[in-house]
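Table S2 (continued). Query chain:
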Amino acid sequence: MFAVIGKWDVPGSREDAIEGLTSNVIPFIRTLPGFVSARFARAVDSGSYYSYLVFDDRPSAERFVTVSAPSRRPAQAEAGVERVAEFVVVEVLADVDADAAVPA
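Corresponding output:
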């Protein structure tokens, strides 16, 4: 598995960000080829937002970076959302939850 990590500047409140995720972002990413899972987070001290999108394979992750993400730029601009760092594509070495560790 491979993941794409992004860092974002999102205007408005935490609740506004959650609303944007649930109404726009999550429905979109669920349609992506090879999509497995996602995590979205906010740094409490800085207010920066982070995304961690997991895909079945590297081509799917790279397709998100080169095709899918750029297609969302107009909607992001309209909402005032800005990516503040380049996407990073990483290989997932292990996926761990409270129940068990599952090798990638």
